[in-house]
UniProtKB/TrEMBL annotation:
Keywords: Cobalamin, Cobalt, Isomerase, Metal-binding
A GO term for molecular function: metal ion binding
Protein name as catalogued: (R)-ethylmalonyl-CoA mutase
Cofactors named for this entry: adenosylcob(III)alamin
Species whose genome carries this gene: Micromonospora taraxaci
Family: Belongs to the methylmalonyl-CoA mutase family.
Entry keyword Isomerase: yes
Length: 668
């Protein structure tokens, strides 16, 4: 049989999607070397991970940056860092994605300035700034300014790139983090499209883009989605996204060109679904999730980046990232996937699934629009509460065994894994000297520049921010003057103010019917009675800049269901603020959540603060992605218990918290 003549084949094999790995750590120089190695291995685009101080608009020497510099991404504090990051990498010929949101305008200005210094024509530069601030209030937590001001910055970037960088995707609407925060497929589609409507409305209403060019705006809007292991459902979700996006852009914005209305998206498959227990199982999870966004030709991702098998353990090494890249290459080049038309065209099963998601997502979208749009839905807490409740239900199903997670709640018997036999060597280690070098570097940078020029640039930025003027020109001036990331964000903080998003705990319940919760509730009540207090009080604290609050919120919900009075003030707290709250609220236990890897700096700072406040007796527990050796260090420093992702049963965790309180108070 002549396979090339098979009637179902495409006349030409499709081009593969852009292949990326999400990369960045330690310093701009170290990350540049990592980029070069990844490109040499066949990666076809760059995806830049920035560290938390950069993402939240702080310089490395700020109090909140302690322990966070270079840990989950690369620190970029000024123009010199951006030059080093892309040294020898021609930006005009490299498709670059930058996962940056609140300071997206700032990082794009740095990128564009370096491009011009390289001699690049900015109209040729292709890539993406994530620049979706809405999901930051709901999941990742790297917001800075209030929602309305943040949306103004997004609209300014869209208008600027339309004029100056027409091949650039100025915003990447992210449903990825909504799924991590608990969204069902219906909620993920509905809430993400509500965000897209808010961005397009803001651009349209800003007066910066003529009505006849809205099609040009729409065709540069891309999406960034999550893909879970239920890959058939994920395929239906992606097809539903395309149907609804086509309807919205045609009917709401009058875009008549079908090519401009095409749904374009990139994907990072589900990192949160990776497990610390039997981490080798993560390989097949990643492959199945990749199929959910590649099998359907009519809804295939434009770019794919995959996590590494060991991300539930810590920062992946270059070899781990290479393994994930090879998964993409095997699918694209060894399999016959790209040789056929859409495999699901005409499928009654798929059509029914897509229709179900479309109908449900329309209801969610209409509900958000009836509330006044996505900004109002953030400010009232509606979206956050809906996600916390959905995640609580997801956790309940996993704990009950209704949802099987292999190696975690079923089939837990295992042989020792040779992949993790090396212990801490199974993940990348960030040298503590990185932070000291970054602090020294930014101080030298400030000392070597013209202070008067810096002051003038920041004054212009503040003045423009107080009007409706597009802020990109003032931001570019700040870049050229040598302003730092923290100074740029600080100037806008002075005008816009800062913001603390709703926690979403008010209306959420989690394990009311969970077996064992009644017994824990009795222990909570009895312990409070023995201590002579009305209720046990738990402080849940998020020290530093780590904004991934899903786990902390689920602990807070389950503890409240068990009878605790929970004190939770949200994310981004200093050690001093956590200590002050613990003392003022007279809590019985402090629980700290740290997922960024900064636990060895953040936790001792809280312990030292409690000792200084005369509360060395107050027990402290910690949860996060914490290697075994680090857990030993924390326990030696005085931490009562350390919880990691393998501790998935929330009710059992709450029971342990009661035990910690009893032991700290010499109760039997």
């Amino acid at each position: 049989m002549d396979e090339t003549a098979f009637p179902g084949r495409l006349p030409e094999r499709d081009r593969p999607w852009v292949m990326r790995t999400y990369a960045g750590h330690s310093s701009a120089t170290a990350t540049n070397a990592l980029f070069r190695r990844n490109l040499a291995k066949g990666q076809t685009g760059l995806s830049v991970a920035f560290d938390l101080p950069t993402q939240t608009g702080y310089d490395p020497d700020h109090e909140l940056a302690a322990g966070e510099v270079g840990r989950v991404g690369v620190p970029v504090t000024h123009l010199g860092d951006m030059r080093a990051l892309f040294d020898g990498l021609p930006l005009a010929d490299t498709n670059t994605s930058m996962t940056i949101n609140a300071p997206a305008m700032w990082l794009l200005a740095l990128y564009g300035t370096v491009g011009l210094e390289q001699g690049a024509d900015l109209t040729r530069c292709a890539g993406t700034t994530q620049n979706d601030i809405i999901k930051e209030y709901l999941s990742r937590g790297t917001y800075i300014f209030p929602p309305a001001a943040s949306l103004r910055l997004t609209a300014d970037v869209v208008a600027y790139t339309l004029r100056e960088m027409p091949r650039w995707n100025p915003v990447n609407i992210c449903s990825y983090h909504l799924q991590e925060a608990g969204a069902t497929p219906v909620q993920e589609v509905g809430f993400a499209l509500a965000t897209a409507v808010a961005v397009l409305d803001a651009v349209r209403d800003s007066g910066q883009v003529p009505a006849e060019r809205m099609g040009d705006v729409v065709q540069r809007i891309s999406f960034f989605v999550n893909a879970g292991v239920r890959f058939v459902e994920e395929i239906a979700k992606m097809r539903a996204f395309g149907v609804l996006w086509d309807d919205i852009t045609r009917d709401r914005y009058g875009v008549t060109d079908a090519r401009q209305r095409r749904f374009r998206y990139g994907v990072q498959v589900n990192s949160l679904g990776l497990t610390e227990a039997q981490p080798e199982n993560n390989i097949q999870r990643i492959v199945l999730e990749m199929l959910g966004v590649t099998m359907s030709r009519d809804a295939r991702a434009r770019a794919v980046q995959l996590p590494a098998w060991n991300e539930a353990l810590g920062l992946p090494r270059p070899w781990d990232q290479q393994w994930s890249l090879r998964m993409q290459q095997v699918l694209a080049y060894e399999s016959d996937l790209l040789e056929y038309p859409d495999l699901f065209a005409g499928s009654h099963v798929m059509t029914a699934l897509v229709d179900e998601v479309v109908t449900g997502a329309r209801v969610e979208l209409d509900k958000v629009l009836e509330l006044g749009g996505v900004v109002a839905a953030v400010e009232t807490g509606y979206l956050k509460s809906a996600l916390v409740a959905s995640l609580a239900e997801r956790r309940r199903r996993m704990e009950s065994g209704a949802d099987v997670v292999v190696g975690v709640n079923r089939y837990t018997e295992t042989e020792p894994s040779p992949l993790t036999a090396a212990g801490a060597d199974a993940v990348e280690q960030v040298d503590p000297a990185v932070e000291a070098a970054a602090v020294d570097g930014v101080r030298r940078w400030r000392a070597d520049r013209d202070a008067a020029v810096v002051d003038a640039a920041l004054a212009r930025l503040r003045a423009d921010a107080a009007t409706s003027t597009n802020l990109m020109p003032a931001t570019v001036e700040c870049v050229r003057a040598g302003v730092t990331t923290g100074e740029w964000a600080g100037a806008l903080r002075q005008v816009f103010g800062e913001y603390r998003a709703p926690t979403g705990l008010a209306g959420a319940t989690g394990g009311g019917g969970e077996p064992g919760l009644a017994a824990v509730r009795e222990r909570v009540t009895a312990t409070a009675r023995e201590l002579g207090s009305g209720r046990l009080r738990l402080l849940v604290g998020k020290p530093g800049l780590d904004g991934h609050s899903n786990g902390a919120e689920q602990i807070a919900v389950r503890a409240r269901d068990a009878g605790f009075e929970v004190v939770y003030q949200g994310i981004r707290l200093t050690a001093a603020q956590i200590v002050a709250a613990a003392v003022e609220e007279d809590v019985d236990l402090v629980g700290l959540s740290v997922l960024s890897g900064s636990h060895l700096a953040a936790v001792p700072a809280v312990l030292d603060g409690l000792r200084a406040a005369g509360r060395a007796d107050l027990p402290v527990v910690v949860g996060g992605i914490i290697p075994a050796g680090d857990a030993d260090t924390l326990r030696a420093a005085g931490v009562a218990r350390v919880f990691t992702p393998k501790d998935f049963a929330l009710t059992d965790i709450i029971d342990d918290l009661v035990t910690v309180i009893r032991r700290a108070n010499d109760l039997p």
